[in-house]
Amino acid sequence: MSKRNRRTPEQIIAATAEKLNAMKQKQDIKAAKSHPAAVFILDALAKAEKDEREAKKGLGSGPQSFDNRMRAHNFWIDEIAALEDVAHATVDNAAANKDWLKSQLAAVIETIIEGEEPDLDHIKTTIEANMEIGSVELEAANYKLQTERAARLDFKAGISTA
Question: Where are the domains of the chain?
Answer without folding.
Answer: 8-59, 62-162
